[in-house]
Amino acid sequence: MALDLENFKFDTPQFDPRFPFTNQTKHCAQNYVDYHKCINVKGEEFEPCQIFFKTFTSLCPVDWVGKWDDQREAGKFPIKLD
């Protein structure tokens, strides 16, 4: 899903009690995984999946997301997303 930079609005992710500490690495990675699991089951148009998308795009470094995307496309991502 491409970002619409002209209409992009920054939203800070809400507090997630699963990740109460300052290091948000796991929060980032979990939302990336949750987003891809959600769209694989419900499709990209399913609105609740966008919460995961907005969260991981806000928290995750672009380099990480690019690396994970490459791994997914190559079938080498370490977590099952289906």
Question: Can you lay out the helices and strands and say which pair or pack?
Answer:
Layout: H1 25-42, H2 49-59, H3 62-73
Disulfide bonds: 28-60, 38-49
GO molecular function: cytochrome-c oxidase activity
Pathway: Energy metabolism; oxidative phosphorylation
Helix/strand structural class:
mainly alpha
Strand count, sense and barrel status of the largest sheet are: none
N-C termini distance: 18 Å
The helix-strand sequence is HHH
Rounded radius of gyration (Å): 13 Å
Low-confidence stretches: none
Proportion of beta-strand residues? under 5%
CATH class of the domain at 23-72: Mainly Alpha
CATH superfamily of the domain at 23-72: Cytochrome c oxidase, subunit VIb
Task: Return the CATH topology of the domain at 23-72.
Answer: Arc Repressor Mutant, subunit A
Helical content band: 40-55%
CATH architecture of the domain at 23-72: Orthogonal Bundle
Mean pLDDT: 87
Count of beta strands: 0
Shape: globular
The count of helical stretches stands at 3
Pathway: Energy metabolism; oxidative phosphorylation
InterPro entries: COX6B-like (IPR048280), CX6/COA6-like_sf (IPR036549), Cyt_c_oxidase_su6B (IPR003213)
Keywords: Disulfide bond, Mitochondrion
Subcellular location: Mitochondrion inner membrane
